[in-house]
Amino acid sequence: MTPAPHRSHTDDLLSFIAASPSPYHVVASAAQRLEKAGFRELRGTDDWTGATGGLFVSRAGALIAWYVPEGAAAHTPFRIVGTHTDSPNLRIKPAPDTGTSGWRQIGVEIYGGVPLNTWLDRDLGISGRLALRGPDGVPRSRLVQIDEPLLRVPQLAIHLDRSVNEGVALDRQRHIAPIWALGEPREGELLRRVAAAAGEDPADVLGWDLMLHDIQPPGYLGVDREFVVASRLDNQVSVHAGVTALVDAATGAAQPAFIPVLAAFDHEEVGSGSETGAQSPMLERILSRSVAARGGSDEDWSRALAGAFCVSADMAHAVHPNYSERHDPDHRPLPNGGPTVKVNVNQRYATDSTGIALFTAAAERAGAPWQPFVSNNAMPCGTSIGPLTAARLGVTTVDVGVPGLSMHSARELCGVRDPGYLAAILTTIMVGD
Q1: Does domain 5-87+231-431 have CATH number 3.50.7.10?
Q2: Count of alpha carbons within 13 Å of 419, Cβ hemisphere only?
Q3: Which contiguous run of DSSP H or E holds residue 431?
Q4: At 114, which helix (H) or strand (E)?
Q5: Which CATH class is domain 89-214?
Q6: Which of 28, 74, 140, 369 has a CA between 20 and 30 Å from the CA of residue 321?
């Protein structure tokens, strides 16, 4: 039997997630797919003059990619899809080797809003990047991914904590160091293990950005396998959809009427305040430079922004069946009902009526459903990169996202159809048909 289109998309999504346990791997996975579609990477020190076709710039855990059709005027407006590559997790400290009571442990730091109980009693691997000695004193970088059950944060037995089911919060400072062996701490042991996995000499490691990940593979759930379950759905669902849409826009029969752009930022989960975050000038500088590379002036740059539209794509909340009172009574998105359009009048989301109209018109052309989302007035509202991008570039922006459960958990859930719906809508927006 030929698989349904949505199943083909989610099968590919699960492969993307499995290969991308860290933001640096997300960028590498996206770049690999773009290069396969004919995109080429530009360096900041390159001469971009006259560059057309599929192009991208990567920096650590962030990637900006765009497609310039032949003959596109310098003032051609942008169609931007904004996403983020990072997910809440546990990150390894600079001096990681620790332990107590006869156990060797690894010191970790909490990254983002982590529901810590979801990381208990899970088999954990290590991923990230190493900074290594390079030629002429210039450091080089190497990705590392250890998909082995190396570590575990063990839960205290209920016999020793009868209050565990009463909602007592886990002590964030004392009880999250994962175990990985018996015995006294051995300085440099973790570094030696990780360097060996990367095929490098530990003496060449000058620094690292390492984190833990759940090694359980992504998969399907439900009587009819109608749900996707995986780590890091927030926000790799959107990154994967954005890459898919950009490639489709660049390789389709019809040339885009706009300049389609994918902006995948890092550090959204901790405020986006970094050189690769949405608060940085990274996107603005790359887009303005792309205009100049096509002979554009400041006037062309202003015109390109004036006609631009941005879709900020980030995971959204589906109504929770056990906590329905936490949701707005009239806005209850469900999995497989299509992406949500997220609205907050206090500008935690950047959506306005113009953005809604542009997005819903594209959804109609794509034949994809969508759902409105508003937070319960009594609950704090989350946010995304949408307001940051709108404020920095001054472009019409709409915040959207695939609805799911267990957001920020070590293992999240969404509908099997929604990632494909999102990709189809984003493709329509990027092409502009």
Answers
A1: no
A2: 33
A3: helix 418-431
A4: none
A5: mainly beta
A6: 369
User: What is residue 201's three-state secondary structure?
Assistant: coil
Question: Is there a contact between 258 and 79 (Cβ–Cβ < 8 Å)?
Answer: yes
Backbone angles phi, psi at 291, to 5 degrees: -65, -45
Q: Convert the pLDDT of each residue in 300-327 to its tens digit.
A: 999 999 999 999 999 999 999 999 999 9
Contact 266, 86 (CB under 8 A): yes
Query: Tens digit of pLDDT for each residue in 72-93?
Result: 999 999 999 999 999 999 999 9
Please answer whether residues 27 and 265 qualify as being in contact, where contact means their C-beta atoms are separated by less than 8 angstroms. Answer: no
User: Is pTM, for the whole model, over 0.85?
Assistant: yes
| β 179-182/103-111 pair status | antiparallel
What values do phi and psi take at 165, rounded to 5?
-90, 10
Asked whether the beta carbons of 430 and 66 are under 8 A apart, the reply is no
- Which of these, 185, 214, 225, 188, lies nearest to 103 by C-alpha position? 185
Is residue 360 classed exposed, middle or buried when 0-12, 13-18 and 19+ CB atoms within 10 A define those classes?
middle
- Judging by beta carbons within 10 Å of its beta carbon (0-12, 13-18, 19+), is residue 124 exposed, middle or buried? buried
| Token pair in block for residue 401 | 């996202």
Centre a 10 Å sphere on the Cβ of residue 237 and count the other Cβ atoms it contains.
30
Residue ranges covered by each domain of the chain: 5-87+231-431, 89-214
